[in-house]
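Reminder to self: tokens first, then the designed residues, so the page reads top to bottom the way the pipeline ran.
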């Protein structure tokens, strides 16, 4: 299962390529590739739900800071697009982004929000990676998805993959390469595991 929330569209094709290589001498159905854990649409919905929960506490005049580890330029740019979509139609003035792999990067993001005029900054993870420790002026909103919700989502994706195989004989491994990845002709491609956002789970 590609453990991605949509910022890395190349992860699922890379997973299919790697599993196809591993399955080349095995019976059909030995490996099934589930759909990615989430898409950008899912991510926007989960983040909007998280922000809506923050706003239920009363008048909120602060900023929401979406935090994720830095990846490649396209994936990083996608997070800014996500922030814009999360902000749309919500009664919050600022939805900002911090590409934070360490505490200093997160502190810079919080400081930026305070300089914009926010009286508090709520740090919301935009990935499954817990953000660095919250600096002064920031408040940790907790994980994007709780353990129970995450476990249920993984189980749902696995069940969907099994049903697709049983119904259609589709193992999910014949996915076309994503634009930007190398193409090979006439031979089985070497497995690729470059994952700027997530990881590959084989099973």
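Designed residues (203 positions):
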């Amino acid at each position: 299962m590609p453990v991605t929330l949509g910022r890395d569209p190349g992860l699922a094709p890379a997973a299919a390529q790697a599993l196809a290589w591993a399955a080349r001498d095995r019976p059909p159905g030995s490996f099934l590739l589930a759909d990615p854990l989430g898409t950008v649409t899912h991510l926007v919905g989960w983040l909007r739900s998280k922000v809506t929960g923050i706003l239920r506490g009363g008048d909120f005049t602060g900023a929401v800071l979406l935090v994720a580890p830095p990846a490649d330029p396209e994936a990083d740019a996608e997070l800014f697009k996500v922030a814009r979509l999360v902000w749309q139609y919500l009664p919050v003035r600022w939805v900002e982004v911090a590409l934070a792999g360490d505490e200093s990067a997160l502190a810079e993001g919080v400081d930026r929000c305070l300089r914009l005029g926010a009286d508090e900054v709520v740090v919301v993870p935009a990935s499954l990676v817990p953000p660095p420790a919250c600096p002064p002026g920031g408040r940790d909103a907790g994980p994007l998805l709780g353990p129970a919700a995450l476990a249920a989502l993984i189980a749902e994706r696995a069940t969907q993959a099994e049903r697709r195989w049983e119904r259609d004989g589709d193992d999910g491994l014949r996915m076309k390469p994503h634009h930007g990845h190398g193409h090979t002709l006439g031979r089985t491609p070497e497995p690729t595991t470059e994952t700027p956002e997530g990881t590959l789970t084989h099973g």
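The two ends are 8 Å apart (CA to CA).
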